[in-house]
Amino acid sequence: MYRLRQISIKTANLNPSCSALLKRAAATGPNSSSKHADGSSFVIQAVGEKDMVGPPDKVSNIRPIRFHIPANESPVEKEYRLTRQEVLQWNQDFWSNHNTKFLKERNEFIENEQRKKCNNDPLSADEMSVFYKQFLDNNWQVHVKYNAEWYKKNIGLMLQSFKILVLKSFGRLNRSS
């Protein structure tokens, strides 16, 4: 079962337009939720015509995004939005796995070093630097592959975005009704 994080905002000190917007958002109910790695979840409410950004995931540190879907979204815009969602999910998965591996290996390193020293004193920065260098050296190829793939995906997104811009500029974007 998921724990739901709830945020309550006092509207008394807000200007009237912000207060009205928050009340309208609360009245519409949640339309998107996301699960954190720790099992808790949060709800993002779509308000207006903008993408909504949630709090960072506790493991990956990636902020989830609820993409706005316009009523008359064209097939090209839909493809772009779906690609953005796929890239965001790919990024989320990579950093969740990477950071989980990092934390596990760091904890194992700390336990082994404390066992060698026969005490539970925290390790110094110099002692921890051995682990950090070793982890970076061992995962260098993973980071190179990630960066290459990240660049490819971002260039693909920029090309899709440019295509939409050009189609809009010439009035050739076919909107669905």
TrEMBL record:
<protein>
    <recommendedName>
        <fullName>APOPT family protein CG14806, mitochondrial</fullName>
    </recommendedName>
</protein>
<keyword id="KW-0999">Mitochondrion inner membrane</keyword>
<dbReference type="GO" id="GO:0097193">
    <property type="term" value="P:intrinsic apoptotic signaling pathway"/>
</dbReference>
<dbReference type="Pfam" id="PF10231">
    <property type="entry name" value="COA8"/>
</dbReference>
<keyword id="KW-0472">Membrane</keyword>
<keyword id="KW-0496">Mitochondrion</keyword>
<comment type="similarity">
    <text>Belongs to the COA8 family.</text>
</comment>
<keyword id="KW-0809">Transit peptide</keyword>
<dbReference type="GO" id="GO:0005743">
    <property type="term" value="C:mitochondrial inner membrane"/>
</dbReference>
<dbReference type="InterPro" id="IPR018796">
    <property type="entry name" value="COA8"/>
</dbReference>
